[in-house]
Design a protein that fits this description.
By secondary structure, the chain is an alpha+beta fold. 33% of the residues lie in helices and 22% in strands. It has a single domain, classed as 2-Layer Sandwich (Ribosomal Protein S5, domain 2). 27% of the residues are buried.
């Protein structure tokens, strides 16, 4: 089996995952996945691993994630893990799609760019008075 490289994006967070044969160790930015805080982010990241079952015990996944906030990073990691596992074992692809489509398909929404004369906002304009 050769290494699998995939990425996941959410808002401005980008996670890059490398799946290799191993003993079931999952690291995010060189930390074990069990050390991620807050706990809700950790649970979000572990979701695809729980759905995959015993497949996870024979592989290692190394993930580097940067940009965005803690929640966006967790969702980017979740997407990267889901894509890596689906590429490793094609049967998991259907399982992931039935459970939650966002395990394989990225959320394409991004921040709207700022416009001129809006005080750094995307939409609000300068208030005018016609008196």
């Amino acid at each position: 089996m050769k290494n699998i490289h995939v990425s996941g994006k959410r808002k401005t967070a980008i996670a890059r995952a490398t799946l290799t044969p191993g003993r079931g160790i999952v690291r995010v930015n060189d930390k074990l996945i069990t050390q991620i805080t807050p706990e809700i982010s950790q649970l979000k990241c572990r979701e695809p691993l729980l759905l995959a079952g015993d497949v996870v015990n024979s592989i290692d996944i190394d993930i580097s994630v940067r940009g965005g906030g803690p929640n966006a990073q967790a969702e980017a990691v979740r997407l990267a893990i889901g894509r890596a596992l689906a590429e490793y074992d094609k049967k998991l692809e259907n399982t992931f799609l039935e459970y939650d489509r966002t395990l394989l398909v990225a959320d394409v929404r991004r921040r709207e760019s700022r416009k001129p004369n809006t005080h750094g906002k995307a939409r609000s304009k300068r208030q005018t008075s016609y008196r």
